[in-house]
Design brief:
Blueprint (H helix, E strand, L loop, with lengths): L1 H23 L5 H17 L1 H4 L2 H10 L5 H15 L9 H13 L6 H17 L6 H8 L7 H16 L19 H15 L5 H8 L4 H4 L2 H9 L11 H20 L16
Helix pairs in contact: 2-4, 2-5, 4-6, 5-7, 7-9, 9-11, 10-14, 11-14, 13-14
Protein name: STAG2 protein
Family: Belongs to the SCC3 family.
GO molecular function, one term: chromatin binding
């Protein structure tokens, strides 16, 4: 009897899906399309055995091309709910490989809210599987730390931090109490300098610091470590910083001090709703 009841419920669900959803997810009214995508996201989360597969996921993938920003936004938030649950990751592999390029392109969406959620979704994808995103995919997100729109830049800063700064070497565990040049932060500060120089936007250190301020405050406020990298002799086998790298570190250090003292984003960075011309 239980099996019969379950079959009957699944038949009803299937009828609702084919009779309502399949027609309404392309409705002429954007609000109805948004409701459809929001709901299918809930179904996939609540009943992943039946709904979390590519026959249903493809509707979310296709709708990421919707002309209305509110609908694209619902696609991204629905997907975030799925990628956040690591137990569901194996069921999302095919979808990720098929629609990853679209998600990456949405980080440049003309609607800022959509761009922010696309970056947050890629951060979750990154945490579920490091191999999925190519170096080129990551670089497309990295350069957004210099965006004039702060929410986009902060989301990109968190992505950058998770990718390049959050992995700790097991050897660092013994160095946690060490300070200055011998602290685990020393290598991370150098990574920050290398990233800044490679990005070739040398007049924008304040933008980079502001983007990472929320997620990497402890690193950016480790002035003792920065000082010792500038003033002390390198440890055995350690490469000394070049003049160019030292200049970049001084510039970053100045920006972190200014950010800590003034507590506001750099000039020219705001939270406006629409992206201006390139």
């Amino acid at each position: 009897q239980l099996q019969e009841n379950q079959d009957e419920i699944e038949n009803m669900m299937n009828a609702i899906f084919k009779g309502v959803f399949v027609h309404r997810y392309r409705d002429a009214i954007a609000e109805i399309r948004a409701i459809c995508i929001e709901e299918i996201g809930i179904w996939m989360k609540m009943y992943s055995d039946a709904f979390l597969n590519d026959s249903y996921l493809k509707y979310v993938g296709w709708t990421m091309h919707d002309k209305q920003g509110e609908v694209r936004l619902k696609c991204l938030t629905a997907l975030q709910g799925l990628y956040y649950n690591k137990e569901l990751n194996s069921k999302l592999e095919l979808f990720t490989s098929r629609f990853k390029d679209r998600i990456v392109s949405m980080t440049l969406d003309k609607e800022y809210d959509v761009a922010v959620q696309a970056i947050k979704l890629l951060t979750l994808v990154l945490q579920s599987s490091e191999e999925v995103l190519t170096a080129e995919d990551c670089e497309n997100v990295y350069h957004l730390v210099y965006s004039a729109h702060r929410p986009v830049a902060v989301a990109a800063g968190e992505f950058l931090y998770k990718k390049l700064f959050s992995r700790r070497d097991p050897e660092d565990d013994g160095m946690l109490k060490r300070r200055g040049r011998q602290s685990p932060n020393a290598n991370l500060v150098k990574t920050l300098v290398f990233f800044f120089l490679e990005s070739e936007l040398h007049e924008h250190a304040a933008y980079l610091v502001d983007s990472m301020w929320d997620c990497a405050t402890d690193l950016l406020k480790d002035w003792e470590c920065m000082n010792s990298l500038l003033l002390e002799e390198p440890l055995n086998g350690e490469e000394p910083l070049t003049d160019r790298q030292e200049s970049a570190l001084i510039e970053i250090m100045l920006c972190t001090i200014r950010q800590a003292a003034e507590c506001h984003p750099p000039v020219g960075r705001g939270t406006g709703k629409r992206v201006g011309s390139k």
